[in-house]
Amino acid sequence: MRLKLAVFDLDGTLKEERDPYIYLHKQLGTWERSQEFFGDGLAGRIPYEEWLRLDASLWKGVARTRIEELFRRDRYLPGAQETVRTLKAWGVYVAIISTGLLLHAQQVQADLGVDYVVANEILFEDGRVSGEVRAHIPEGGKGAVLDALLARTGISAAECLAVGDGASDVDLFRRAGVSVAVAPRSEQVKVAADIVLPEQDLSSLLERVRAFAPWLLES
Question: Which DSSP string corresponds to 56-120?
Answer without folding.
Answer: HHHTTT-BHHHHHHHHHHSPBPTTHHHHHHHHHHTT-EEEEEEEEEHHHHHHHHHHHT-SEEEEE
